[in-house]
């Protein structure tokens, strides 16, 4: 079951210093994002805006490859939280392999990043001509000896590191047919 936003949804800072979203009577969504990662006050109490709703539906539409409705909603709400409240990030592209084909991603697009041992799947939550902010949809991954990258972690990367999953899937389909 997909959750439908309404005028009772509101963002607030939980007692454990995580960003929370009240979804109505007895329903809370706890994001993994701590106050220190966000640009909001301890007294945050904001309605889920029209812009939030637009982002939520955009992200849900892009997550059709995830079969579980609960996981789609969780990913979409975390993506809205990052797009709306996350502190600006500096690119951390050095963890990922550069790509020969430059790809300018779209908002909500599912992309991959190559860490030389595997590809990570992420969703783009903010774009610019040179870099994109993404959240991880992959399981917890060690990027280096000192950097753990958890599910729904946010990272900014230069667009020359991004692998379009659409292009990758098209190439696999062409190989299968040809």
From TrEMBL:
It is found in: Cytoplasm. Keywords: Cell cycle, Cell division, Cytoplasm, Septation. The keyword Cell cycle applies. It holds the Pfam family ZapC_C. Residues 88-165 form the Cell-division protein ZapC C-terminal domain. Coiled coil: none annotated. One of its GO terms (biological process) is cell division. InterPro entries: ZapC, ZapC_C, ZapC_N. Residues 3-87 form the Cell-division protein ZapC N-terminal domain. Contributes to the efficiency of the cell division process by stabilizing the polymeric form of the cell division protein FtsZ. Acts by promoting interactions between FtsZ protofilaments and suppressing the GTPase activity of FtsZ. Belongs to the ZapC family. This is Cell division protein ZapC. It comes from Oceanisphaera ostreae.
């Amino acid at each position: 079951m997909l959750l439908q936003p309404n005028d009772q949804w509101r963002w607030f800072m939980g007692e454990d210093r995580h960003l929370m979203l009240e979804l109505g009577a007895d329903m809370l969504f706890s994001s993994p994002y701590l106050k220190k990662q966000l640009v909001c006050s301890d007294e945050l109490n904001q309605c889920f805006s029209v812009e939030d709703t637009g982002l939520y539906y955009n992200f849900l539409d892009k997550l059709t490859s995830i079969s579980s409705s609960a996981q789609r909603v969780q990913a979409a709400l975390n993506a809205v939280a990052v797009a709306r409240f996350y502190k600006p990030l500096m690119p951390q592209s050095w963890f990922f392999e550069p790509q020969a084909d430059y790809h300018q991603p779209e908002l909500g697009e599912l992309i991959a990043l190559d860490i030389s041992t595997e590809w990570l799947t992420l969703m783009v939550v903010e774009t610019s001509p040179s870099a994109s902010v993404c959240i991880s949809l992959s399981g917890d991954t060690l990027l280096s000896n000192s950097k753990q990258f958890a599910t729904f972690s946010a990272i900014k990367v230069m667009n020359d590191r991004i692998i379009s999953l659409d292009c990758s899937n098209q190439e696999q389909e062409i190989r299968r047919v040809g």
